Structure formats: structure tokens, C-alpha cells
């Protein structure tokens, strides 16, 4: 399956940049997120390395038959009605599994937003796991992993660092009208 997924990426012109995470447990954040295709290319990228991180998707998307497909691809439903409850739901997975990884899009939506959500931060900090700075860039068809970042506990400092990292990287969204790091507040 690894080779099959690597061939799919190559067939569609995608290049994987950076090294895959090697930790047993970690959080990957991925920017930008403006299309369901981000999920598809991300899953194929991880599968090309034999990895299967969980992606949590709002429970409303798990209707028949889409729900069956999403579950087969490693997605899990999450109740987004209470943000603190979301963190607890994900932490349960970290606590129950010897190996566990999750990919989170801090925008929390495919629509344009002016604020990054901080749930990934609280999850990684409470689980005491690193955050990998992942990305998709449609302009040059690159998908990959930036650095492994251990959170300091100073949320303002860490969020500013992460924001600056992505500003320098400047990944191109599938729908650029729905993404601009310049307008995002931390």
C-alpha cells in the first residue's frame, strides 16, 4: 500500500517534502485548509509512509454513505458543540493508545477565517507530545512536514512562532480566496 500511495502522489504531480514524524505519539497541524481535497492528499501522503493518523471531522459529515468512507479512511466523528469537550475527546485517544497521531487543521473550517483555533495546542500540551508543522501547497504541489516543535507552555510565544513559520513558508491554498495568513490573528 505504501508504494501504491506513493505512485498516486507522483501520478498527480505531488512531492513530499521533509521527514515523516518518527515519534510514537504526536500532533500534526496542517495549513492551509480550504478544500476537502486537503484531507485526501494528506491521507495519501501519510499512507505512502505506512502511517494512519486520525483526523477528526464534525459528526454531521458522518451520514450514509459518506460516513462509511470517512471511517475507512481513518476519520473519526467529533462533537464540535463544546471546544473544551473536543480537547477531552482527542486526549482520550492519546491516553488509550500506545501509538497515536492526529492531524488537525487549526483554521477549523474550509471557509476564510481570521483566527487560528488553539485546540491543537491544548491537546499537544496536555498529552505532552510534539507538534509537527505540516502543510499543503497547491501552487507547487508540495505536501509535507516542517519542523518538530515542542511547545514551551507560553501559548502566546508558541502561537507567534507557529504563525511566523507559516508566513515564511507561504503555502498556497487550493482556494486562495479562503486563506490569508496576513489576516489571521493569534
Structure summarized in a few sentences:
The chain has 186 residues and is α/β, with parallel strands linked by helices. Helix content is 36%, strand content 21%.
Descriptive notes:
This protein is α/β, with parallel strands linked by helices. The protein has one domain. 36% of the residues lie in helices and 21% in strands. Strands 1-7-6-2-5-3-4 form a seven-stranded mixed beta sheet, with helices on both faces. The longest helix is centred in the last third of the chain and has 15 residues, at 155-169. The protein is globular. The N and C termini lie far apart (39 Å). The relative contact order is 0.21.
Largest sheet: 7 strands, mixed
**How many E strands?**
7
Topology as H/E string? HEEHEHEHEHEEH
For the largest beta sheet, what order do the strands appear in spatially? 1-7-6-2-5-3-4
Number of discrete domains:
1
Task: Name the structural class.
Answer: alpha/beta
Regions with little confidence, pLDDT below 50 for 5+ residues: none
Strand content is: 15-25%
The helix content, as a percent range, equals 25-40%
Shape: globular
Radius of gyration: 16 Å
Q: Determine the number of helices (DSSP H or I, runs of at least 4 residues).
A: 6
Mean pLDDT: 87
Query: How far apart are the first and last residues' alpha carbons, in Å?
Result: 39 Å
